[in-house]
Amino acid sequence: MAELTHIIDSEVFLAFSTYATIVVLKMMLMSPMTAYFRFTRKCFANMEDTGMAKTPEDKKRMLRVDPDVERVRRCHQNDLENIIPFVVIGLLYTLTGPDLSTALLHFRVFVGSRLFHTVAYILPLPQPSRAVTFLIGLVTTSSMASRVLMTALYL
Amino acid sequence: MAELTHIIDSEVFLAFSTYATIVVLKMMLMSPMTAYFRFTRKCFANMEDTGMAKTPEDKKRMLRVDPDVERVRRCHQNDLENIIPFVVIGLLYTLTGPDLSTALLHFRVFVGSRLFHTVAYILPLPQPSRAVTFLIGLVTTSSMASRVLMTALYL
Amino acid sequence: MAELTHIIDSEVFLAFSTYATIVVLKMMLMSPMTAYFRFTRKCFANMEDTGMAKTPEDKKRMLRVDPDVERVRRCHQNDLENIIPFVVIGLLYTLTGPDLSTALLHFRVFVGSRLFHTVAYILPLPQPSRAVTFLIGLVTTSSMASRVLMTALYL
């Protein structure tokens, strides 16, 4: 296990583990948030979820689409589309042996941009706040990807 | 390659590889299952997929939303939202060097909960079976994430 | 950091890093492509995105579902459902120490199949071109998964 200890002890890897875990936990929080909005808006996708209804008509009425629920779900989907690529490319980037300060800059900017993105999406804040936070995340991941390709290119 | 051999030979890593592969394969099975429901229900999302129809009216009629297909797709989406975080955080957790028995407990509970979740979603079973299996998975991944953050925290 | 250097220097790992990065970047390109179609079709999902509209009626008219936008989004979703499993299982497969030529075959076939899949989905090409490229990707990932399970099985 000496090698594992070495990997997990490099500061860049520790930083990656920390920021990746934080941003994945943030993404996972979108599920309970969706559930919260489904219960408060009484809006469900499955008949078996409408147990709080008393009559069959009430049950059917709860099988609907609610704009607040859809907003949280779009935010969750945007997280999947952006945070997963960050984690994959960030891991490979970490293994290319970048400077600690450069790596920390990438990790912090990405995680910060995604936290602001969620706030901008859910409140919502006026555009272009959501578009800008989305783009910052995209550029950060692309910057790490370019280093992976420059260091590891083997076609 | 000595180091790679060491990593792949640690029992926790072997267990992680096994359970991660099994649960990702389970997730991948949702695609053929969606295709199966689309063909048996004759319900498609793209005009070019309706080749089995004989008349243009039949083609248009097949471009519809079917509740069984949507149920499988929601189950697939829930897998993406939960199994990917498990894989990411599970890998980092594995690298923190946990006890084999503790790690196996986490991996087995998570994979078991997701197998039951799929059964509960597709049949469907009455609630709260689906909610409970979902929550067990969420708690398991969160437990691994807390160990990663306690071991590797570097902000 | 000797071990990290060793890992990142094995040719199979370099090849995996390259192909995984390329195919994840391809997936990330679907977001700007969705934005492009949303702006050219004037079709948005959030009220705050309709800033280009002049009157409140125009804003409401832009909150609609467009078939071209939905097609790009389905393609993006299919990428998430297939490329992420490839990356996860491909990483574990890489760590099992496969032959370089066998590994390259898997990586190239998968990435090639997904590039063609996107072309087949967006143009669109007549079926079964999209179905075949999808299946090739599924079989490639399953082949890597079977090697992981045969090498690492630990239940």
UniProtKB/TrEMBL annotation, chains A, B, C:
It holds the Pfam family MAPEG. The keyword Nuclease does not apply. Its EC number is 2.5.1.18. InterPro entries: MAPEG-like_dom_sf (IPR023352), Membr-assoc_MAPEG (IPR001129), MGST1-like (IPR040162). It is a multi-pass membrane protein. It is found in: Endoplasmic reticulum membrane; Mitochondrion outer membrane. The keyword Metal-binding does not apply. One of its GO terms (molecular function) is glutathione transferase activity. Coiled coil: none annotated. Belongs to the MAPEG family. This is Microsomal glutathione S-transferase 1. It comes from Oncorhynchus kisutch (Coho salmon).
